[in-house]
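Quick log. Single chain, no ligands specified.
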Amino acid sequence: MYSPEAWQRHTRLNGKLLDRLLPPGGKILQMSKEYFPHPGYRDMEYYVFINYNARLARDDGFTPWRPHPRKEPAFIALQDELFRCATHIFTAGEYLRQNIIETSGVRPEKITSVGNGVPPEYERNAPAEFPEEFTHRLLFVGWDFGLKGGRDVLAAMPAIRARHPKVELFIVGPDEAQKQQQGTLADQPGVHWISGKVSLDHYRSADLFVLPSLRDSYGFVFLEAMSQGLPCIGADVNGMPEMIADSETGYIVPRSSPEAIAHAVDRYYTDPSNKKRMAEASRRRVESLFTWDVVMNKINAVMGLEG
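-> predicted structure:
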């Protein structure tokens, strides 16, 4: 996916498909950024929806999905061309919108931040009410434990349990190899590792969702958690500060700071009213900003597809 050669190959394949399927005057909404929609893209009406871009991936120092360094400049140049020639660009986050405006030569009026949508099954299964009592459970979900800030969460646990001894951490997703890489931190008291996928019950049985990622374009797991009334702790980078309303639906902490994570957890448990108050605020925030109906209404308005 991440090379100029792959870019051109996929562009040719896209062209063959669109030549068969696109009706006269049809509009294209491309949900990707690794190819042109068609070899004749300059003369077509196409729109792009994205969560991240190659320049941010190069600069953040953490993204593993990148072109070879020798081919990266050419790949970024192709991506800039995709953005400049698009009829309009939709970004999940405002931080990404600003980056494209500043670095890719796209006029501000040609790019709109529209947010992201929670998966429909979570929207359909939102709880009607929320309990008022703490369960003393923290939840971490992420198959890439290091990239998602998991080691910082483990490092925060001794300080958390010193203030709140009942608190336990449930980690869903990482495999056994990632667990073993954490050494003695992995098997400390109060830490539980769960293989497999996250479920509604995991979200609903926790007090806080803790995922202080080192980078996170616009993580669906935050929206899944908030849809189930679970406030979130996220880091102060990328889309996390846009999804989480600090002190209302969770807490924003500095990246790579176990001390700040422990302090945020302490703030939450110090006030028993936070349980229900933040649960209700989290669900309301998802319903008002982060459903696919909300997102697509914004996109349709720009594309002239209302009704």
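The CA atoms of residues 288 and 294 lie 7 Å apart.
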